[in-house]
TrEMBL record:
Xref: Pfam families: LGT (PF01790)
Protein keywords: Cell membrane, Glycosyltransferase, Lipoprotein, Membrane, Transferase, Transmembrane, Transmembrane helix
Keyword check for Oxidoreductase: no
Name of the protein described by the UniProt record: Prolipoprotein diacylglyceryl transferase
Gene Ontology CC terms, in alphabetical order: plasma membrane
EC number: 2.4.99.-
GO molecular function, one term: phosphatidylglycerol-prolipoprotein diacylglyceryl transferase activity
PANTHER family per UniProt: PHOSPHATIDYLGLYCEROL--PROLIPOPROTEIN DIACYLGLYCERYL TRANSFERASE, PROLIPOPROTEIN DIACYLGLYCERYL TRANSFERASE
Transmembrane segments: 12-33, 45-66, 86-105, 117-135, 171-191, 198-218, 230-250
Length: 264
């Protein structure tokens, strides 16, 4: 498939950019709906989103360039060529969390509350945005004979795998995982808005846990993973995030028990 959708004069408009723009638009609409659900002002959530988007793009690209430094170190102009792909989810996550932290701290707002508000929008943006990998023929897995395998052009096949035609659509698995998280987050937030059964931040933490657990196994199928000290970098980050979520949950449980004991 031609990665260029159309031209505006000399400017090429890429399908990758169109998909990302559409994904962001859907994510923003979902987040503004969640703001209303939580009783937060739409202006505050919109300003927060406008902080998250550039920060997330910057850290997503920076992460990708640094983890593929041997490819980019001699070609600085390619550092900015995001229309060729190369936006790392873990890098984007780091930037978005940092933006939420800074914004909520500066405005004296609850980080966990606004993280919950943004979680469904983040998940659906991720689910749609992953399809940009299909257009650019990247982030796929090992060769496969499964009926759902995707055809990869010869020029996009990694060295040593040129003789294979069909590969695991790992980007599709990630997209499905993110969409599942989106549905869970929506249900939890709507239910919690009526019942108030979940602590602030629980939806956001669940998103991190489910995505990290799913990504850990999907990463085993990826053909382009970065290996550091004998381990796939993305899997190491997933384990770190899972451990972080468990520690936060255990600490919350401990504090809750402590408060109950004091209240007796």
């Amino acid at each position: 498939m031609n990665p260029i959708a159309f031209f505006i004069g000399p400017l090429a408009v890429h399908w990758y950019g169109i998909i990302l723009a559409f994904a962001l638009l859907v994510g923003i609409c979902v987040s503004l709906w969640q703001a209303r659900l939580f009783g937060a002002t739409r202006r505050t959530v919109l300003y927060l989103i406008l902080c998250c988007i550039p920060t997330g793009f910057l850290t997503a690209r920076l992460y990708f360039v640094l983890t593929h430094w041997t490819v980019y170190k001699n070609n600085p102009l390619e550092w900015f060529s995001i229309w060729h792909g190369g936006l790392a989810i873990h890098g984007a996550f780091l930037g978005v969390v940092a933006a939420i932290l800074v914004y909520t701290y500066s405005k004296r707002l609850s980080f966990w509350r606004y993280a919950d508000i943004l979680t469904p929008g983040i998940a659906i943006t991720q689910a749609i945005g992953q399809w940009g990998n299909f257009i650019n023929q990247e982030a796929f897995g090992y060769p496969t004979n499964d009926v759902w395998g995707i055809y990869i052009d010869f020029a996009s096949r990694p060295f040593g795998f040129q003789q294979y035609d069909f590969f695991q659509p790992t980007f599709l698995y990630e997209s499905g995982l993110a969409f599942l998280i989106f549905l869970i987050a929506i249900i939890r937030n709507v239910f919690n808005n009526k019942q108030r059964n979940f602590a602030e931040g629980s939806t956001f933490l669940l998103y991190i846990f489910i995505y990290s657990a799913g990504r850990f196994f999907i990463e085993d199928l990826r053909i382009d993973s970065e290996i550091i000290y004998g381990m796939r970098l993305a899997q190491a980050i997933c384990l770190f995030l899972i451990a972080t979520v468990l520690i936060i949950c255990l600490k919350r449980q401990w504090l809750s028990c402590k408060l109950r004991v004091r209240g007796r």
